[in-house]
Amino acid sequence: MSKGMYKAKAWGAKGGNFGILAAFIAFAAFPFYWMLMTMFKETRDLMNPNHNPYLYHMRPTLEHVRVLFFDTLYLQWLWNTAFVGFLVVLITLITAIPAGYSLARLTGKTGERLGIGIFLTYLVPPTILFIPLSKVISSLGLQDSLYSLVLVYPSFTIPFCTWLLMGFFKVIPKDIEEAAMIDGHSRLGAFLKVVMPMSIAGVLTVIIFTFTLVMQEFVYGLTFITASSRFTVSVGVPTFLVRGDVYFWGSLMGACFIASVPIAILYNLFVDRFIAGFTVGAIK
Amino acid sequence: MATVETRDIRKLFGDVKAVDGVDLLVKEGEFLVFLGPSGCGKTTLLRMIAGLETQTSGDILIGGQVVNDLPPRARKIAMVFQSYALYPHMTVYRNIAFPLKAQGFPGDQIPQKVEWAASTFGIGKLLHRKPRELSGGERQRVALARAVVREPSVFLLDEPLSNLDAKLRTSARDELQQFQRRIGTTTIYVTHDQVEAMGLGDRIAVMSGGKVRQLGSPQEVYNEPADTFVAGFLGSPPMNLFERDDYIAGFRPETFLPVGLHDTSEPLVTLWAKIHRVEHLGADRLLYGTMRDTFPNEKVIINIPFTVEMQITPGEVYEFAVKEKDIKFFDRSTGLRTEPRRFWEKRS
Amino acid sequence: MTKHTQSLADNERWLGRVMIAPAIVYIVALVGFPFFLALFYSVSNITVGSTETSFIGLENFRHLLHNRTFLRALRNTFVFAFVSQALVLVLAKTLALSLLKDFRGKWVVRLLILLPWVAPISLGSIGWLWILDSVYSVINWTGRALGIFGPATWPIWLGQPTLAMASIITVHVWRLLPLATVILLGGLTSIPQDIHDAAAVDGAGFWRHNFQITIPLVLPIMLVAMLFGVVFAFTDMIVIYVLTRGGPYDTTQVLASLAFFTGIDGGDLAAGAAIALFLFPVLAVSAILMLRLARRTEVT
Predict the structure, then answer these.
(1) Measured between CB atoms, does C190 come within 8 Å of chain B?
(2) Which residue, of A98, C36, C78, C250, has the fewest CB within 10 Å?
(3) Cβ contact C268:C47 at 8 Å
(4) pLDDT digit string (tens) for C47-77?
(5) Interface contact B267, partner C, CB < 8 A
(6) Which pTM was predicted?
(7) Is the ipTM of this complex over 0.90?
């Protein structure tokens, strides 16, 4: 091959790479861009098939957002999600932090197997469990209560977060705990006083992930809750903002955009730690 | 076999000048060592020759042909990495065969070539193992066999012995040199270990701050350092350097001996030093002290061979001497070698 | 000399057990127990309102195997999961490779690419519902404007069985691609640069480098990504619930959605549980693969 060809190939690879990225970005982000476009458009503008959908033919309007916040239960659903999310995060942290540490340090070979076992329960999906759980919830008298979700959601956040935390704890050098134990702490004291402060970033990651898992959950929410004022965002928007055949596209798109994008930005800040914990847990 | 030449080659990483204008000509069949502390640019220079980094400016020629735009695979080179970079998922056989297959070598001749390369390095029995089942020394041999098998015109080696333990390193060094002499392939070898560099190289390029400070035979760079950096980097312990007026004077620890031990008619310079501490290192005795009169209170290290049985007591002052020709002079502002001065005349 | 009795805080064996106990209890109570309940329901005739339940053996399963909607759902489940996973793997590998190099604004690119994964899928699906709308679809408008669709062509994306299936697969790919990419990216960055350099010096071109070096080295982690993807795609009902509700005429029904419509909407808990249990063999196989993989990575 001539030198020119090698050079041309190198440039081609660069341009090709750029093109590939642009195509993927368009695919991934287009629905969100489209939500943003739609939420400020007049309904008459949206519903005219002759209008170029990429342009505004009328002045952008805040009407859809106003309807969403003041004429629907959207705010209530956001609040419900936050409420459930907060309690689930709490329960998850209380159970998963000690469990993760126990698996990382205290249980040895048995713990390794137990850890994999716990992780595997994450593979048992709500789709198998929602039918028996609906019966369990109703016999506990929790149907139509947010507490049904608070009770059930940890069943999938605990396995996942235990696994993640185990990964985070494993990379903390053992020497540090041993030094603390020689300096006069008990094993438990070393964990609380030395390991925990070093794991703040890991715990923060777990909080974010638990919260996103709660936000994304749909099947249990749809099964256990029927009263519209007690929906979470992910269930309320697709079931209740669509009334029969009437789609309020502007408000609907606004609801989706507002609930999706902020959490995505937050999540993005932690995704590297998430992957690190995920793979460390698998390899070490 | 080929020559390797770099012409005013530079590499910037952001604002950092990793390689700052290097002109080099590696002769055919030569064993050239890039020697320098970490961060001196030696590895970057090697990687640019390999085509793994693109130079910011300047030309690289292999066999007289400019290869600036050629990818590594088109440069007819082989490289051994510090980590060996063996493919962990392939057996030793497939590791060695990989470059042959990649270059479209006729399939029926591959087994024979692999056998040859493996037996050259005594790893013929390991062909079915995976890299993780090998010891450090065995991995190093596999890396060498993989480099040799394609019969490249230039060998590039990036600290290939640094992951071996001390004993193994000595024997590997010996084998490596014998092997290079036998096949006579132009070789560039990067290291921070001066013993390796002195032992292996036909010539040594001493590097610092992205520049080649001195290029010469091991004897030249050791005995006639071009500047204070080379003088201070080579030798263990390094050259004693004393600042005075506008110049720096220096001599090697082993040239500064108790005055009666010089058995020579060459002119000597005598100096007094107070000894604080004595270290017995087996073959050598190191004396740590401070100079008197000419360089008051300057620290000095003296290296006396163990064959000298003279009693030396810490706290005492002794008279030492060094041959006039063993004293080197450097410009104080530039650090470069200058003409000899005669500081000792001032004393009388 | 004071005698130090070993308290719980120092006894590693017991401390280890006590610390892990709450998690185990929770999981047994809310995953293990319901799972066995599901097994029991599937061989009973329980309904939402029923007070008495009796054992009817494999009757529910026998019923299902003669039910055409169920068989269609079973087939769809596999088609959706495997077609979308195959696409995800190829695309994720391509995307991860082009994200491997550092460039300015990389974090924005990554944020945009991660959006579909982080956003609640039910909401993302609504976005697609609007994009694929029968009258106002932006795809159709664009196609016509660019002259790709003739004046007589106006695909009803969610209304025609084949198109509806393709749409659902697209949304699955859209949704699962980010996770697979990020996991693969983690695997790719863990390959030492020296290995890539060695391959470049050894003369490997693009294809050889990819298929003989890179892919074999990320294979274990690629399998992890794939297992996750399969489980997600296999058990998901949200996309179908939002986009088609299983329609048109149950042609896009999958096991998960059918279980929901039968068990919860229809009130036939026993049949619903039986349908959902058909997911179990695939999950079991996934779990076994996962275990073997974990063991293999331990060895290396």
Answers:
(1) no
(2) C36
(3) yes
(4) 776 667 777 777 778 878 888 888 888 888 8
(5) no
(6) 0.77
(7) no
